[in-house]
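Posting this for the archive.
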Amino acid sequence: MVRFRREGVRLDQAVAEALSVSRAKAQAWIQAGRVRVGDRVVLKPAYRLKGEEVAVEPVEEVPMVLPEDLPIPILYEDEDVLALNKPPGLLTHPAPGVYSGTVVNLLLARYYGPVEKGPPELVRPGIVHRLDKDTSGVLVVAKHGGVLEGLARAFRDRLVMKRYLAITEGHPREGVLIAPIGRHPRERHKMHVGGLAARYAETEFQVLATAGPYALVEARPHTGRTHQIRVHLKYLGAPILGDELYGRRSPHIGRQALHAYELRIPHPRTGRILEFLAPVPQDMAAAWEALGGRWPEEVVREGYTGAQ
């Protein structure tokens, strides 16, 4: 409830100014009986105030997640499954205050149509896994509800092989790391090895190449905890280059140098193994070269034209 006093102005003008809304919206609230002047409901927007207290009960508006046909590169598509090469800077699904420019907006535009019910943060049609906003690479989604559970089951039952590439500050220990991850006890926006309500987390690491104190690392997460690779690499003393949350900013790249390079998954309807590969994007390729790194022959770069 918002309360204020005005004198000598129209009721709709006063409501619009007091609540920073349009005159049309203020008129709609008045005509819906949501505005009281003194001890009575006034339904006439043109009513001229005489210094009475005005009480407004505004309509709480839930933002909608609208369809948007975004230019996201497609790696593979059939009648059931879509594999995208998600660019950095793009959210997988809506978050508080961000309801456009996400992968979900694309799915709504192409396959699902508008979703009007429920909190917008929970509008996630087709989504079975996610990548952090500034992590690029392979993202697999369901094109319709009939295969959504099959894809989700493959992730739950660990039938999916995921391979990431990261540039790290420091050389992490190779092999399998088992270190539970939970919420950081003080900085709640961060995750932490051994944090609050920690859950089993397992990642396999291999160093593919080094450049002085830096390393090009392959990471294979065997579980799917929030920020898992980033947290495990920090724990190993080799945070990801440019990761401001778990490391530090870098002049070589404007995000964490982490890329979902390859993903293999059984098709939810046929069982056939699908394999997707997203070449390393230009910003990571340029960062690795700037550090003096050389690329292993088997690593494919996207449009890369630098020296070998």
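Residues 62-156 form a domain with the Pseudouridine synthase fold (CATH 3.30.2350.10). The chain has three domains: 1-54, 62-156, 157-307.
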